[in-house]
Write a structure and sequence with these properties.
about 75% helix, about 140 residues, mainly alpha
């Protein structure tokens, strides 16, 4: 059980790093105008509303890749609960998408995809590692 908790924590760190890197890519594609205060919710909403689809897709890619990468790490570290550890990462990413979407307005297509894709991505990562248990092979 302790190793599974460690696996989920490590997977969460990897997911966060992946998501952050992809979000930085979105900022590179669509940097805020000079003097824009992104701490102001209205300014942030206006910035996102003007973002090109490629920048938004890169953020979505971060959510999905983060769930996959984090799920893969969690499944690799966990001995007994590989699929559960990986799926935990997918669920945590979806919870992050929900929180993010409630705080910051996103296009509907992005929110829907962000809710639907991370859990299957984490599941796929667990399948690549080899299923539910190390000794199941």
């Amino acid at each position: 059980m302790g190793r599974t908790i460690l696996a989920v924590l490590a997977g969460l760190v990897v997911a966060w790093i992946t998501i952050t890197l992809c979000e930085f890519g979105g900022v590179i594609l669509h940097p805020p105008a000079p003097g824009t205060n992104l701490a102001d919710p209205d300014a942030l909403a206006a910035h996102i509303a003007g973002a090109p689809p490629a920048a938004m897709a890169l953020v979505l890619l971060g959510w999905v890749a983060g769930a996959f990468d984090g799920g893969l790490v969690a499944a690799l570290i966990s001995r007994l609960h590989k699929r559960g550890a990986a799926l935990s990462i997918g669920v945590l990413v979806v919870l992050g998408v929900i929180a993010n979407s409630l705080m910051i307005p996103h296009p509907l297509w992005m929110t829907v995809a962000g809710l639907l894709l991370p859990i299957p991505a984490a599941w796929l990562a667990s399948r690549l590692v080899g299923g539910r248990r190390k000794d199941a092979a």
